[in-house]
Amino acid sequence: MTFDDMSLPPVSPEDVAPLMAAVTGSVLLPGDAGYDDERAVFNLNHELVPAVIVVAESVADVQAAVAFAAGQRRPVLVKTTGHQVIDAARGAVVIATRRMNDVVIDAVGRTARVGGGAVWSDVVGEAAKVGLAPLNGSNPTVGVVAYTLGGGLSPSLGRSHGYAADHVRSIDVVTADGELRHVDAESEPELFWALRGGKGNFGVVTALEFDLFPVPRLYGGGIYFPGERMADVLRAWTAWHPGTPETMVSSFAVLRLPPLPELPEPLRGAFLATVRFAYTGTAEDGERLVAPLRAVAPAVLDTVRDMPYAEVASIHNEPTDPLPYYERGIMLREFPAQAQDKLLELVGPGAETGLWIAELRALGGAWDREPAVPNAVATRGLPYSLLGVSVGPLSEEQRLKESVAELLDGMEPWRGERRLVNNLAPDEATDAAAIYGPERYERLASVKKTYDPTNMFRLNHNVVPAA
After folding, report:
1. CATH fold label, 103-214
2. 3-96 and 103-214 share one CATH topology?
3. May I ask the CATH architecture of the domain 217-423?
4. Would you say residue 430 has pLDDT above 80?
5. This prediction's pTM
6. The pLDDT value given to residue 429
């Protein structure tokens, strides 16, 4: 019998008394002080309403929470910041890992070992002190573990180094049987393969060790053009980026920004086309590389500069405070002239769209190469990632979803078959076989059967245990 087959009544104080005695962190039921704080997530249009929250402070706390969930036959959801919420977790056990946020940098070995609750700003700051950099995401408040388990598409170093999952050395994970496993390529190779790309399907990661790179600075930022010049900028960028070295990562985005006071004056309430860059070569070479795009049109704002790597989040300058939004992404297998025309039609100057952001990231390079130790990442060989984001309250949910759907459905003729799990929306079909492809999914399902046969970890884009 799996967790899917069970009804999930409320948890009583008597039920959790043994759990509270075993946990050094907090155990919270609905109505308890602190419950609402711990269930809060980054996306204000989603909420968690679990039966119990365990705010873990140690591996032993995580093990106690998993054992409790198993005894109660309840599913488990792991939360650090809640940027990507898939399920409301009704009746479930939520394990909040934010207090387990230790970051230890090995400057000589060029590695980081981080706790399950670390976010990217924690790691970038510590690594930068010794001239090193991780394969971090664009938003500094995203949890390191979930990002990495989902592949990890670094917009600063990924084109030269690949996915964040490609550079994981070892993983400490509590599996559904309550065991703490130290997993690497030698100890448990199948689980190690599946964890790196299979997202949260296989256990609660309590620590992650991964490579760092000697990148103390870069030449990066964004050039913001008037939205009316989108066609010129898009065509110039599309022709330009394939000829750049792998040390140059770039993306193109169309922005319809709200009049928020925290935005710089030129961007406030503006319609813009922007190109973002991250280049690890010299500033002189970077300036030369970017010059053809600077010449396309007069810029509204140009933030491209030489910067310490510690300031890498300024390139995308994404919100760091919770807000209500809906986002969804696809991969593109090509982006020919017809696709460029379609994108202009969908989000260009003449479009009636409610999108806040439509972003196209150029991939290739090391993102296409298999790492020395293969993993379950499914999107190699697909040259573009396309993401749509609409912002607004839950009362406008239908409009938000339709705005994103218009973009992605319009680009359907060029869509790749496989998906990046980190860019999937909560309400998308949970057919993980379509995300990973049949052969990879079959292998993931086999690993799932071994380590989570009752599907305890199912509040996700779920890999179902093999029959």
Report:
1. 3.30.465
2. no
3. 3-Layer(aba) Sandwich (3.40)
4. no
5. 0.96
6. 62
